[in-house]
Amino acid sequence: MRSICASLCTLLFCFTLIQAVAEIPLSGTAAFQDSLPIPVFSAFEGVVYKIPIKRVKLGYGNDILKLPVVDTIHWDRIDFPDSDIKETPFPGVNLTQGFGIIFTGTVKIPKTGWYQFATKSDDGTILWIDGQKIVDNDKDHRMRLRVDSVALRAGTYPVRLWYYQAYPTRYGVQLDGRYYHDLGSEDEGLVRDTVTLSQEQLLFAHNSNQLLPPAVHLLDSLADKLRLNAVRRISITGHTDNTGTPAYNARLSRERAQAVQAALQKHFTDRQVAFAVEGRGETQPIAGNDTETGRARNRRVVIEIEYY
């Protein structure tokens, strides 16, 4: 696996440079056909539900199973590309809007390791493997690709895929998967990236450990990108300028690192990602503290990301 990018100087650059290896151009053919080993999906059975207009945009919910079943369909594979409802009927379904399908099947994993799975759909999809939610691409939207990764041992696992179509004028649903990376030993194959968040990007108010709204938005976007990769560990280190006492700066830098940790960690509650935080205060400046420009550069949070 290669890293998202070699080195990132600021988070703003991060969003323009990140090229997640998991952004897969699903089309009418298997997107991963040149990668080995390949997870092998069985044929799928799909139970079709009629969804009332008043709840059609809500996506998946436990109440779906209580809705009327209108049909059962069988597909050799889930690969129905983006289509105009006026030109292409949805295979096996005599509806153009207000329906959902729960597909069930299996996937054979040929080798223990990390695997990526992708859904591309209009409207929503959710993929579960062995009862674990792997890809959440739900809710009302245009054709959209979502990818996520999971560690699996060799074997055969049950697969469930939720798909629904809200309103016209287009629909489509595709599913694919590929082998991603060996599980490896503790440090074998690790790749690291560094992202530096500068106070110039309005991270925190003066002398505060509370993230400002622009910083929350940037961290949410960063987390979305990181979730496309097999992240092992995220280390967060806070730094300050030399205004104030060393003890105060050490405490403030750690509290700011903890705030960044909390903003990222909420996106990884379903993952085994280790987090570490540290506050180094004013001890490691990257610019002189004799100008406001230099002090602003020194007020920063550094995020180090380790991947499998």
UniProtKB/TrEMBL annotation:
Subcellular location: Cell outer membrane
Domain of life where this protein originates: Bacteria
Signal peptide: 1-22
UniProt KW Signal keyword: yes
GO terms under cellular component: cell outer membrane
Alphabetical keyword list: Cell outer membrane, Membrane, Signal
InterPro entries: Bact_OuterMem_StrucFunc (IPR050330), OMP_bac (IPR006664), OmpA-like (IPR006665), OmpA-like_sf (IPR036737), PA14/GLEYA (IPR037524), PA14_dom (IPR011658)
UniProt-recorded name of the protein: OmpA family protein
Annotated source species: Flavilitoribacter nigricans (strain ATCC 23147 / DSM 23189 / NBRC 102662 / NCIMB 1420 / SS-2) (Lewinella nigricans)
